[in-house]
Amino acid sequence: TRGGPLAGVRVTVTAGPTREPIDPVRVLSNRSSGRMGFAVAAAARAAGAEVRLIAGPVALPTPLGVTRIDVETAADMHAAVLAALPATDLFIASAAVADYRPAQTSDRKLKKTAESLSLSLERTPDILAEVSAHDPRPFCVGFAAETDHLLDNARTKLTAKQLDMIAANRVGHALGIEQPDNALEVLWADGAHSLPRAPKEQLARELVALIAERYRLQSKP
Ligand code: C5P
């Protein structure tokens, strides 16, 4: 049997962006590379966990020993996460899920006949908030990418979504999305820990070590 701080723990990780169709050829998406989530999945596996990685459209190799499920839209990711839920002890939501999707998807390619075009958007399901509200619930770890008021916004999300932990990163200053390096402020109800700027692979190992420590404290009080 495998050892490690997460030995025998069933971990589900979401990663990457989602892609919301406007018509058969056009999508709404974001700049998430998926690299942080893939690194977290690899680090959780290295820590002994049984890892399921639910990935949006990204061009990254599947970490060794990890079960990968590819999805496209927020709705697909939502369904895949719910299907995995009965076999999830620890949920790490690193995906940059689209917050809005086109309210209608056209079956045919839209023509550029009009001078301007308005898209009507609707909210997508908040996967993490839903998993966290589930009974029984897994240990829930969220991410918060913020340009401003990093710690305040992250702490607000920790409370609002009733998370066990949140990893906050600043975006927009050569850090975060689309960058090989990142830095994280990890928060939980009665504590915090800064992980200074490092390659995402190293940061993922440090984050998984922190998660394993908190997870074991709450599962074996
Ligand atoms: O509220 P916000 O989108 O900033 O929260 C970010 C956290 O929530 C991330 O962990 C992200 O993966 C998760 N999330 C989600 N489903 C959504 C939106 C965000 O799981 N629709």
TrEMBL record:
Write the Enzyme Commission number(s) for this entry: 4.1.1.36, 6.3.2.5
Protein keywords: Decarboxylase, Flavoprotein, FMN, Ligase, Lyase, Magnesium, Metal-binding, Multifunctional enzyme
Co-factor remark: Binds 1 FMN per subunit.
Its required cofactor(s), as named, are: FMN; Mg(2+)
The molecular function GO annotations come to: FMN binding; metal ion binding; phosphopantothenate--cysteine ligase activity; phosphopantothenoylcysteine decarboxylase activity
The entry's CTP-binding residues are 99, 109, 125-128, 143, 157, 161
Q: Which organism is it from?
A: Acidihalobacter ferrooxydans
What functional role does this protein have?
Catalyzes two steps in the biosynthesis of coenzyme A. In the first step cysteine is conjugated to 4'-phosphopantothenate to form 4-phosphopantothenoylcysteine, in the latter compound is decarboxylated to form 4'-phosphopantotheine. Catalyzes two sequential steps in the biosynthesis of coenzyme A. In the first step cysteine is conjugated to 4'-phosphopantothenate to form 4-phosphopantothenoylcysteine. In the second step the latter compound is decarboxylated to form 4'-phosphopantotheine.
DNA/pantothenate metabolism flavoprotein C-terminal domain residues: 6-213
What is the recorded name of this protein? Coenzyme A biosynthesis bifunctional protein CoaBC
User: Span within the entire protein?
Assistant: 179 to 399 of 399
GO biological process assignments: coenzyme A biosynthetic process; pantothenate catabolic process
Q: Which gene encodes it?
A: coaBC
Q: Say yes or no: keyword Lyase present.
A: yes
The family line of this record is: In the C-terminal section; belongs to the PPC synthetase family.
Query: What cellular-component terms does GO give this entry?
Result: phosphopantothenoylcysteine decarboxylase complex
